[in-house]
Amino acid sequence: MSTGNSRVCVRMVGHEVEESYSALSKEQMSIVEMPLSDPPLCISCCPVNGDLLVGCKNKLVMFCLKYLVINPDFSVLDFERSLILHIDNVIPAEIALCAGYVAITTELDVLILKLKSVQKGADDTELCAHKINAPEKLVDEGIKDEAPSAFSSQFESDDFVICQKPMELLGEESELCGISVTLESTRLNTEDAEHFQVCYILYRRFTPDLSSFVFSVEETKLHSLQMLPMYQTGSFTTDNRKTAAKKELLSLFCFFSLPHVGYLYAIGNLVELLSTYQYSEKSEQAVLTPQFLHVITSNSLQCFTVRCSAAAARDEDPYIDTTVKACPPVSLDVCALRMQLFIGLKAICHFKNHIIILTKADTEDITERRRPSRRLLSRKTGSVTLTASSESESGWNLYIVNTISTIQLYKEMVDYSRTYENSRTESCIHLLSEAHLLVRAALMDPGLMELEEEEELLASFKESCALLGDCYSRFDTKDYHLSLPYYKMSDLSMTEVLKRMDSEEDRAQKYQRGFIFYLNHSLYEELNEELSKESAAKVLQIFHLAEPNQLPHVLCSPCMKNVCPSMAMDYLQKVERIVPTLVVTLTKAAMALKMGDLETYKREMDRYTETKMAYGFIVEPRLLRQQRRGQVIPTELALHLKETQHGLLVASVLALYENSKIELEEANTYFKMLCGRNDDSVPQLLVDFWEALLVACCQGEVLQELLLKLISQYVWRLSRMQYPDTMPLKTTEDLINSCDHYGLIFPWVIFMMSLGPRSAKVYPEDLSKLQSLLCGPSVNVTSVLPFLEPLLEDSNAGLSIHVLCTTRMGECEKSIDKLLERCPEAVISYAQHELKDDKRALWWTKLLPELCKRTRCPGEDYSILVSALKETLSVVAMELELRDFLNVLPEDGTAAFFLPHLLQCSQRKLLT
């Protein structure tokens, strides 16, 4: 490191920097020296992270950019030689490095590799060495043989070259190219070092142009190797773009060129050839940008379109080609935008929208150099060496060409496309697609920071989408369906699109397939837009001429709310004469109802049975419900059915659910809105729907959800003694006979309910349905208990429900206690039904002791308890042996009064 008063400080990579350097750095220019063991042939810098790659004979050396922290307030840039790629028998002509991808070209070969980060093995050996079709070799530069000057083997003679066949290998197939690549890690800190393995991405081999024997190898070799990254941008909204501070790599492209043909590959998520560029004359050099490919020949600067933005858009959004979004295809033919003449073009590079070109006006040597050689194609024919004068050569010029702004070029392309509107449809669409991709590429530029420029680009983007939508709507093309996504991306309303079509002078082309496709889907998607009466009438006329069978579906769209019903009836009658269908009839009924013509409405509804009409609602659900601003809205027809044919309404919504036309929660909301309920109360129509759904044998989670909904609703009404708002469609008996989830009500429950008068305020069906569900096989009693808390045990109704639950949970002792306490009359009936099989012993272990204990204290229920005790003793005496029977009797003599009865029971036992 230079010190003192020197104006230049030279630092060597890998050496520590003294802390005193921070004081000198403000006055010194710093140079970083990178020693190389071999002469460098080419170099490349990664545009993503700043790493360097140096190409030498048979090897590539990578230097990683890093920061050296001198002190907390000062850090400097530095490089570390981190990796060497040993590639046998290769002398690279050009190399490129970008985000871990490495590209190498020789005169006629291209190889692209990816350095993939891997973990070290269990034995701490590196997993990065990767060889294909080559024996393992030690890295020893001193014993390597001289390598040929290309990947492919070329057998030489004095005057001839025998070339191998051209070859293209993509992805995993490129490993078969036979090229050995070995990695050598050279990081100083091996513990923290990142380890890599090689993945082969692309291999392509060309052959010299043999169309004319006068050309040499120099006239056909590859040039202009370049990698182009494109970054993640998110959607085209200002908020999303401005918050993305860190650039995230989205897509990567690689370009290389022969003198007369250029090749552009996508090498990111998918390896594929995007475009092939044919030049009108021999190229000298080319540079690729996200929007253009600039190529120089000896006398002209040419500009071509590229497809990088189309490929990147699909990497960013794999579902971009849908009915919502679209993008011109990657396979779109490339266009030559313009050609500018220059004399003696030598080199080209670019920065943003600036093209820098180097020329030499003196053409004497150029003419001599371009003179065709008379020799045959030979490996020993090198490039012509120019004799340089000892004095400075004159005629060199440096030009900076500002390319036209994106917005201006976009406008020119749009204006130019109008010349093809009436004659060459595909050319018009092609030009507009080019303009669209031009703006899209500009919006994907992470360097786009000015808000005003971005807003202008977004406006142009939407305009280009509208123009493409117009093309696919008005022209008869195979891709007519693209009218829908392009119109959607343009943010045009349906009314605005209709006006654009009406503004066209040529009215013969207005109703092509693309326009009908757009209208059809827009009306089906239930947009939050209501067409005016005039626009709705226009839509009716369009479909009457183009697709009359779609008229019923068009009229069911919420966009057509303002349509004239009498006009709609006229059109429907015309359609019915041609294609009479159930949906046409139902739509006519809806229009008659809208006009207030109840006679016509009844006549149309009486033409079919309820079952068939339910099928018609499956075909067109929007006859019953529409969606506006994300909310389900019942139609006027549904409101009328609620008052007149609520059975048909429930059956129709059930049919919609079974055919996946409506979700369960959506149906719940629908019935509440239909009945005008904005609170948590549940209308009887919704309860009818839940019961009908249970009858339809639903299973799984939906079954348990429905059971809980029904039980909670039954309990809610019973606890508040509230009647349903409408007469239920099905009685308890109907549900028991038609649904397995409703069980026969147990005899002891029926007996309990017969003991006392029912309250006039309690609707008996709710209680019996709740009892039937709890008697059925499907209810999970544990999950039901929280819903039963509002139902008290102070009545036989509430007591029966709670006893049913404790019994279903296997707690028969607890149930017996409840009955003895609150309803002893039912205890024997309960025991006769429930105390069987494994519960049989409860007769003498639970019921008998409890009855004996309770009969000691005479009260209001004394006679009932004594009668129950007699029945219990009869059962126990018949079930047990005499000795066991006597053992269960109480020892205090309470049962002495029953000795004659016990003796008789014992005798019956002995006889049996």
Automatic annotation (TrEMBL):
<dbReference type="InterPro" id="IPR029438">
    <property type="entry name" value="HPS3_C"/>
</dbReference>
<protein>
    <submittedName>
        <fullName>HPS3 biosis of lysosomal organelles complex 2 subunit 1</fullName>
    </submittedName>
</protein>
<dbReference type="GO" id="GO:0005737">
    <property type="term" value="C:cytoplasm"/>
</dbReference>
<feature type="domain" description="BLOC-2 complex member HPS3 N-terminal">
    <location>
        <begin position="3"/>
        <end position="386"/>
    </location>
</feature>
<feature type="domain" description="BLOC-2 complex member HPS3 C-terminal">
    <location>
        <begin position="408"/>
        <end position="909"/>
    </location>
</feature>
<dbReference type="InterPro" id="IPR017216">
    <property type="entry name" value="HPS3"/>
</dbReference>
<dbReference type="Pfam" id="PF14763">
    <property type="entry name" value="HPS3_C"/>
</dbReference>
<dbReference type="InterPro" id="IPR029437">
    <property type="entry name" value="HPS3_N"/>
</dbReference>
<dbReference type="Pfam" id="PF14761">
    <property type="entry name" value="HPS3_N"/>
</dbReference>
<dbReference type="GO" id="GO:0031084">
    <property type="term" value="C:BLOC-2 complex"/>
</dbReference>
